[in-house]
């Protein structure tokens, strides 16, 4: 009975986490550059297997129950989102694999870089090209990009920026060999490890001026995932309640017999 209670508890916890992830996806359905998350789980082995006790089984039938489910790292799907036109010259979208690079600050170890697919750019009061959070957008040499106010910027498919026919800079667009190594840092930004950054290469993605990439969340899928996770959580919690009732009945019965 204790084993069944534990399995139901792990199932409830994982179901509630799946519900939270689905709710977050749904909340970001209109967030440009947002990528959908999904929860992966695996079946845990029995206590004997996880402890490495070999064939020493106290009860063969109970050992077959396993240890419930174990949540793995949340998986982010980097599928291309729909590209829509905005008419804003400083809005850009990537068609293909890759990420824009922004500087989130600096510390003793150097610059803190972030990656993003959200290309809603603008100029700040100093003429620096910044993203929607006000962070400097970097060129292919990881330097900030400064533009002249009042002069239309033309951005080519390779990310090169021109003003008045003069080349200003080229947008830094990095291709990451393993996008799953990235960690979401909020505001459609991704933190990148030094190892992944060292192996990053300039992307061949096409830069689309006057456009943004929409969220990759499918609203129907997100609603169905949240509903399914909620039902699974209710079922596991109901099972826990049933086990609690059985345990109470067993205790009361044995107490009377004693």
Key traits:
single chain, 258 residues, alpha+beta, 2 domains, six-stranded antiparallel beta sheet, three-stranded antiparallel beta sheet
Q: Could you characterize the architecture of this molecule?
A:
With 258 residues, this protein is an alpha+beta fold. It folds into two domains: 2-78 and 217-257, no CATH class; 83-213, no CATH class. The protein is built from five helices and 19 strands. The protein has helices spanning 2-27, 47-50, 60-63, 194-198, 219-257, and strands at residues 37-38, 41-43, 69-71, 75-76, 83-85, 92-95, 99-107, 110-116, 122-123, 129-130, 153-155, 160-163, 166-170, 173-175, 183-184, 189-191, 201-202, 206-209, 211-213. A hairpin with a 4-residue loop joins strand 15 and strand 16 (189-191). Helix 1 runs antiparallel to helix 5. The protein is elongated and about 95 Å long.
Low-confidence stretches: none
Q: Strand fraction band?
A: 25-35%
Helix and strand pattern: HEEHHEEEEEEEEEEEEEEHEEEH
Number of domains: 2
**Which word captures the global form?**
elongated
Mean pLDDT: 85
Number of strands: 19
Radius of gyration: 26 Å
